[in-house]
Amino acid sequence: MDTASGDERGTTERVLALLGLLQQRQIWTGPELADRLGVTARTVRRDVERLRALGYPVHAGQGVGGGYRLGPGKDLPPLLLDDQEAIATALSLLVGARGAVAGSGDAALRALTKLDQVLPTRLRHEVRALSGSVESFDAGRTPVDAEVLMTLARACRDEVEAGFDYPSGNERRRRRVEPYRLVASDRRWYLFAYDLDREDWRTFRVDRITEASARTWRFDPRTAPDAVTYVQESVASRVYPHQARFLVHASAETVRAQLSASSAVVRQRGSQLCEVLSGAERLDAVLMHVLLLGHAFEILDPPELGTRCRALAQSLLSAGATIAPASDTPER
User: Fold this and answer.
1) Which of 72, 274, 288, 330 is the most buried (most CB within 10 A)?
2) Do 154 and 225 belong to one domain?
3) Which residues form the HTH deoR-type domain (predicted)?
């Protein structure tokens, strides 16, 4: 056995044990730590310096009531978790990734993939088993399979090809992709990926993906469009047979508060102007959607929508003409 390597492993294990003790209690005296670790007080001081070099703010106090304590730092250093803490953290992040906490889904998923990278196999199985028992009554986001979500997240992180079954018409087909990002909307999770068979960028709803698997074949990342913008435009307009653009006489902030991110893309065009891009099965539906916002607007595209606008206006005028105007004189 390499004695130097053995000594290094012993030091590493001891420093990790010291970190674990400091995380368990607010204050430890030097003799208490030395007794717990089976070393001298001098060794404890050296190990404290090693922790400080790694970014852990270990503070030392003198006199009565003094001792070592782990304080808040400028940056977040690695955390030391035991098995139960790791399982609880993974489950909490999984719930957040599923959308139980508003606005936390993408951050929870990023943290979960980092934890998954170092989680022992025995704990991965336990997290998977327990995740099936975790539910939420929050109906804001469409539920997704936790294993599918994690498989795709790992593939994005590792830059490896992925495959999965996805609906196409009345059947499911195998898709081969280079996965780039997972994007969360207020309603769903989406995978932004390069489709290798169709040789183009695509957006996939994660709740429709089954039999997901990641390969060991790594790919060189392509020059990609912005994932969030691409997915939002796909969801709001490109998936529909008809798309339309409007110039709305209101600030983008005001209009975004009236529309969900999945129903329209809103771009700032001035302090009191914005462009709205949306899609629908019928152009009339898009037109009425913008009309009901209650702001003055202009049609930018397509040209035929102007014809429909005039026809609908005439229909509304005709319908209104059949009803006698209300009298301004109050009834007696």
Assistant:
1) 274
2) yes
3) 11-66
Q: For residues 180 and 207, is the Cβ–Cβ distance under 8 A?
A: no
CA distances from 151 to 98, 213, 225 (A): 14, 6, 23
CA triplet 167, 168, 170: central angle to 5 degrees?
A: 90
Picking from 239, 298, 248, the residue whose alpha carbon sits closest to that of residue 270 is 248
Closest CA to 148 of 178, 121, 109: 109
- What is the number of structural domains in the chain? 4
Domain containing 183 equals: 146-229
Q: Strand, coil or helix: what is 243?
A: strand
- CA–CA separation, 75 vs 44, rounded Å? 23
State the first-to-last Cα distance of the chain, in angstroms, to the nearest integer. Answer: 107
Chain mean position to CA 60: 39
Here the CATH number for the domain that contains residue 51 is 1.10.10.10
Using alpha carbons, select from 66, 51, 61, 45 the residue that is nearest to residue 19. Answer: 51
For 261-319, write each residue's pLDDT tens digit.
778 888 899 889 999 988 888 888 888 888 889 999 999 988 888 888 888 888 888 88
* Residue 4, pLDDT above cutoff 70: no
Q: Cis ω on the peptide bond leading into residue 57 (within 30° of 0)?
A: no
Q: Is the pLDDT of residue 95 over 70?
A: no
Where helices occur in 212-303 by DSSP H, the ranges are: 227-233, 252-258, 283-291
Token pair listed for 60: 């030392």
Phi-psi region of 287 (alpha: psi -120 to 50; beta: other; left: phi over 0): alpha
**Helix pair 30-37, 3-24: axis angle to 10 deg:** 130
- On whether residue 331 sits in a domain, the answer given is no
pLDDT at residue 91 greater than cutoff 90 = no
Q: Look at residue 200 and tell me if it is in a domain.
A: yes
Per residue in 46-55, pLDDT (tens digit) is 999 988 888 8
For residue 100, what are its two tokens? 């139980």
